[in-house]
Amino acid sequence: MDNRDYAGDAVALLKKLISVPSVSRSEEKAADVMESALKEWGMTCRRAGNNVWVTDSNYDERRPTLLLNAHIDTVRPVDSWTRDPYEPQVEGDRLYGLGSNDCGGGLVALLQVFRIMSGRRRSYNMVYLASAEEEVSGASGISMVLPQLPHIDVAIVGEPTRMQPAVAEKGLMVLDVTARGKSGHAARGEGVNAIYEALEDLCWMRSYKFDKVSRFLGPTQMNVTVINAGTQHNVVPDRCTMVVDVRTNELYTNEEVYDIVRSHLKSEVKAHSFRLHSSGISDDHPLVRRCVELGMTPFGSPTLSDQALMPFDSLKIGPGDSARSHSADEYICLSEIADAIDVYVRMLDGLDLGGQTV
Does the reported pTM lie above 0.85? Predict the structure, then answer.
């Protein structure tokens, strides 16, 4: 088979995936499709929940291991779709369907690359993982599977980047900030107004600039996105709650940013979670160097992916365009899938991750 045949297999598989609804936490049928495809192509796969993976048959624990990963879940279709989101439709070079771009194209292209590279001499192991619950960073997605995989040294994540390497990705932390006062009758000017108590903290959050600025991601950003206070017009509110969206760059951990915010605010601060960290990979990593050798341009990605849950180096690169994700009439170009397979193979063929070729 040449790469055109593999591209044909990729498109056929993607059409099957589009045909089965796979909204996050309801990916059973999509996982069935992936499991069936892997077995059809002679691979021995494993499954945990709706996550499906396969380790290459030449696995040697003395060699470094490369993870090829993309997700099978989708967001819910928006109301403005003008076609059936679950009916794969090809018009010219475009394949329409929910999840085609985010990230079905990367999912099926990386699987074909796993098939191709499994038959070639390599100095590294490969694991292919089709993961669930990426769109919601769910507990039954990649974080559940990672302890069951071999030790991973580096990952390629097949999110749509127009086949340019995202070498850094913003993290996410959501904070609940609560200012407290004392209720009283508004007509008599009694009590301590919690809204006024929050003003100083709001002004600080609006104007504060984090010192460390990333070359690829820029500054860590903090935005107050929700405020709630008060019960009725004549009662001085004793509580004002704020939700704060924080997008961290790779120069800070979420815990570090949390400590900075908490040290400056007089309001109570609680984080929903610290788990969705920013990620970055060195310019000197062999994968990054290979991308540059092939004429690609590294960049920083503002969108979150399963990279946030990976405790090892990772690079986000895949077919399609992030601007099409989560939008009506989502599509991937057939030529993008075929080109991605070619580019991935050129990236990986002869790649030296420090192991012995077998």
Answer: yes
Structure tokens of 152?
Answer: 């991973």
Distance in angstroms (rounded) separating the CA atoms of residues 165 and 319: 11
Nearest by Cα to 223 from 257, 256, 174: 174
Kindly give the interhelix angle for 3-19 and 28-40, rounded to the nearest 10 degrees.
Answer: 150
Laid out side by side, the sheet with 89-91 consists of 89-91, 94-96, 331-333
The DSSP 8-state label assigned to residue 158 in this structure reads: -
Length of the chain in terms of residues written: 358
Kindly report, residue by residue over 9-58, the tens digit of the pLDDT: 999 999 999 999 999 999 999 999 999 999 999 999 999 999 999 999 99
Distance, in Å, from the CA atom of 331 to the CA atom of 325, rounded to the nearest integer, reads 9
Helix residue spans in the chain (DSSP H): 3-19, 28-40, 105-118, 142-145, 194-207, 254-264, 286-293, 334-348
Two structure tokens written together for 295:
């004429």
